[in-house]
Amino acid sequence: MELLCRLIEVPRVSREETAAADLLQAYMQEELHLETRREGNNLWSMQPVFDASKQTLLLNAHIDTVKPVSGWQRNPFKATREGSRIYGLGANDDGASLVSLLHVFASLYEARCPYNLVFLASAEEEVSGKNGIERVLPLLPKIDVALVGEPTGMQPAIAEKGLMVLDCTARGKAGHAARDEGDNAIYHAIDDIQWFRHHKWERVSPLLGPVKMSVTILNAGTQHNVVPDVCTFTVDVRSNECYTNQELFDEIGKNIKSEVKARSTRLGSSSIDVGHPIVQKIIALGGKPFGSPTLSDQALMPFPSLKLGPGESKRSHSADEFVDFCEISHAIETYLALLK
Q: pLDDT tens digits for 234-261?
C-alpha cells in the first residue's frame, strides 16, 4: 500500500512518467532487491536463473495515467485514505495492478518455477505511445504468454477490442448561401456519416460482439452565409478479433465518398484461446472469461495474452478514482494461486 500511495503522489501522466519510473526503479532495487533494466521509462526484471528451454511468462502493468478529469472532489495527486479505500489518480488504473504484480513477482523472484518469469512496468500505455511497450518488447526474451494487469474485477478478459481512428474529409464547392450555388460539403459528409451509423459488419465475435463505429468530431464552415467546401469528421472504430484493422479500413474506403485516412492500424483486437492452460487455471480458480471493450498494451503484443487485475474498469479515467485494500489483497492471493 505504501508504494501505491507514493506513486499516486508523483504525477505520471503519459509521456511524463520519468519521476514515477525513478521512484519505482529505486523501490525495486532498494526495497525488493531486484535486478532491474530500463529503456526510457519502461522498467523490467527477470528471474536471476533464466532457462531458455522453458516457456516465458510476462507480467505486465503500466506506470502512466490519463490527465485528471474535471469533477474531482479530492486532490487527484494525493493518496487519500478513507476507510478501506485509497483515492487518487491512477489508484485503480493502473496502480493497483502494478503494485500487486510487482510484489507477486518479487515473492517468486528466486523460486524454482516450471517457466521463466519477467515483470514489466510499461510507459505511455494510455496513449499507445511509441516509447511505451512497443519500444521495450524487442529487448525482452521470447515471450510465450502475458498476464496484463488491468482493472477487471479479477475476472479474465480473454479478448479485447482494437482501435482505429479515422480522419475523413468531404469536399464540395464554396458559394453564397443566399443563392442556389456551391456544393455543400456538409451534405456529402452526412451521407457518409449515415453509412457509419447504420452499417452492420457481418462477423460478430461471441466475446466482443460486433465492430463498433462512432462519429465523434465534426467540423465545417467559416461563416453563416458561405456554403462550406470542406467538412471533416473523425470516426472511432473498435474492432473485434474477426477482422484486422486493415480489412476494416479497406472495406470502409469502398463504401464512403469522403477521403479517409487512418491514424494507425497497429492497435488490433487481441484474444487468447479459452483452452490455453493459463485460462483454464483461472477458470478452475473461479474465473469467468469475458471480452473487454477497452484497449490496453495487449494490442501491441504479438503473443497470447489476457487481462486480469484488481479494481473495476468503470472507475478508470473518472473523478475520485479509488481502489479498495481488499481488492489488492485478493489480487495478490489470486495471482499467487495462479502462478504456483
A: 999 999 999 999 999 999 999 999 999 9
